[in-house]
Amino acid sequence: MTSSVTTLLPATERALLTSVATAQSTGRSPSLVAGVARDGQLAWTGGCPETDGFRPAQTQYRMGSITKTFTAVLVLRLRDEGLLDLDDPVERHLPGTGLGPVTIAQLLGHGGGLRAESPGPWWERTPGTLRPGLADVLGEGPIHPAGRRFHYSNPGYTVLGSLVEAVRGVPWEEALRTGILQPLGLTRTGLRPEAPAAEGWAVHPWADVLLPEPCADLGLMTPAGGLWSTVTDLCRFAVFLAEGDDRVLGASSVREMRTPSTPAENGEWDSAYGLGLQVVRADGRTLAGHSGSLPGFLAGLWFSVEDRIAAVALANATSGPAVPAVAADLVRIVAEAEPPLPAPWKPLAGVDPELLALTGPWYWGTYTYALRLLPGRALELQPLKGSGRGARFTPEQDGTWTGQNGYHAGETLRVVRREDGSVRHLDVGSFVFTREPYEPGAGVPGGVDAEGWRGFPDPSQG
Predict the structure, then answer these.
(1) Which Pfam family, giving just one, matches this sequence (predicted)?
(2) Domain 2-337, CATH 3.40.50.150 — does that match?
(3) How far is CA 213 from CA 49, 294, 328, in A?
(4) Which residues neighbour 287 within 8 Å (Cβ) at sequence distance 6 or greater?
(5) DSSP-assigned beta bridge partners for residue 103
(6) What angle do CA 353, 354, 355 make, to 5 degrees?
(7) Which of 222, 214, 207 is CA-nearest to residue 160?
(8) What is the Cα–Cα distance from 159 to 177, expressed in whole angstroms?
(9) What does DSSP assign to residue 180?
(10) Can you name the CATH fold of 353-433?
(11) pTM recorded for the entire structure
(12) Is there a common fold for 2-337 and 353-433?
């Protein structure tokens, strides 16, 4: 029923299998398979029920909307190659959509105001020949102002698939194969099932009987939800989304994908959407990934960058098991049972005395901060108490540093020196940090009272 590729503790594997088996049984799914990757490697696969010839790691299931993440990767590749800008109106590259000023980024984050579904018959259960053109997919166009709210849109990702074809000059399927599947070695992912593949079923809500679901060629809608894959391939894809791969997208681009891009709905502050990736808070950790469903299939893919763990779960039922929740639970199980070891501390290979001299306490007004020197001449400025405006800074060629996170992300840190070369203060986006609180002569905005610090007057002295 299970197979380990890298070692997990037996108790951890038992807990993973229990989660999968419980979901399959209580959710009444004909089958449910799952996989876990840790530290970039497949660590566990399992499935239920155990039958002759059942191959959980290699059996294909339809992934539904996880397909959107593949489409988003293809669009980000075009951006990274300089073939488009995410702030470009879609019409610039795909004329005739009628979307006006709606941008590529807005479609990626479901912020373009488009309808949730295409007009006409239920697109997930009918052939794509019923929707031969984008006009048949988009209907009457946007229903919300662009950029103002999150509104999940399958037609939006259909447009993005057509955008990939228009800019790349090849069918979406070919762009997918050469841009993602081949570089990452996803040999069991594609538009059509290849044995062994699960059959999609509907389970009667009041009886333990099954009805086969139709498996239609979705045509233009395929980039929104039509791919088949396995837990093995999707775990490898999740590792790529967490770490990046320069053959497809670099680390900064996949980090951009999991950065929230559209305002969340009221009451959904623990859930957001980036560029083709959902971002949620679960069990005290941040997970990125995507859920998916099509008639006959349910899917979930989540990864935790901090824990270096990813999990995938797939089922062949229209409804029943909470498959995305199963994938999130598998991440939690491994993270709690076998937390990652911290990276070993190592001394810096070399040190610049001038940078070393900058380390230590600094004051923004009366707030106490500490500046630390990191590898690669990077700096970290953090408050010594509380949760103030700390950040990491990476060096630039002009002798400044650029903030990478927090309040100072994108802001510039400068070392301001006196005429004799000594350090006067640090400037971070106009905030002046001095060696002493409100240090005289250190360039504190507004100046420093000439009488300096003083005690409160003693009222007994009249």
Answers:
(1) Beta-lactamase
(2) no
(3) 20, 9, 27
(4) 279, 280, 281, 302, 303, 304, 328, 331
(5) 89
(6) 90
(7) 222
(8) 19
(9) I
(10) Lipocalin (2.40.128)
(11) 0.89
(12) no
